[in-house]
Recover the amino acids of this structure.
């Protein structure tokens, strides 16, 4: 993708002002009594066996916006079960005892992936072409309110990306969610265009990060 195409998307905000479908912004710092969560990786079979556990975390994080189609159509439990069967699927979770502090999951995009469909501006066929081990798609990154302003998000990103062998990582963030856009920017993701992932969803920004060693 040329620089001109990348620059056609508004730059990420460094001072987030709103998070329409995230938990309330003013979250207190984690209490001193909270221990450091343990990070574990789960495969698709393990996630599918207890999909409700992860769905409850998603619903907790997005409790104020579950009425939006972004969060309900299709339901997160259905998405988890479908995605858990994809090649390269992995879910990295931060666990504080039996509590899930947060999780991140994704899978390798297949050759016939619709991930890039409707992306504006059109980056061209070479950019969107998928082949084995080209792109890992990041589907969800969630940290529950109690563990925000800690290193949970950092540990999730570092652990997940360290285990990937793809050339690049891609994610979709609601255009209005400046907090998550800024979070991804901290981890080297850049905006490449806009798209509507599912009919009726709000516009999303596609973000991409090169994972190849330099």
């Amino acid at each position: 993708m040329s620089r001109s195409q990348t620059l056609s998307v508004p730059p990420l905000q460094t001072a987030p002002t709103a998070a329409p479908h995230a938990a309330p912004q003013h979250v207190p710092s984690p209490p001193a009594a909270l221990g450091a969560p343990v990070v574990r990786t789960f495969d698709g079979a393990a996630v599918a066996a207890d999909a409700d556990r992860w769905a409850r975390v998603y619903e907790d994080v997005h409790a104020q916006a579950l009425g939006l189609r972004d969060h309900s159509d299709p339901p997160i439990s259905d998405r988890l079960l479908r995605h858990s069967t994809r090649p390269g699927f992995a879910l990295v979770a931060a666990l504080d005892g039996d509590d899930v502090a947060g999780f991140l999951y994704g899978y390798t995009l297949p050759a016939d992936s619709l991930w890039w469909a409707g992306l504006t501006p059109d980056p061209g066929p070479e950019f969107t072409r998928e082949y084995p081990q080209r792109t890992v798609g990041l589907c969800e990154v969630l940290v529950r309110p109690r563990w925000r302003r800690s290193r949970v998000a950092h540990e999730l990103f570092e652990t997940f990306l360290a285990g990937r062998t793809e050339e690049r990582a891609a994610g979709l963030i609601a255009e209005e969610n400046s907090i998550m856009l800024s979070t991804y920017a901290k981890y080297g993701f850049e905006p490449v265009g806009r798209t509507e992932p599912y009919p009726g969803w709000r516009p999303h920004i596609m973000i991409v990060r090169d994972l190849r060693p330099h």
Summary: Confidence is low (pLDDT under 50) at residues 1-33. The radius of gyration is 17 Å. DSSP finds eight helices and seven strands in the chain.
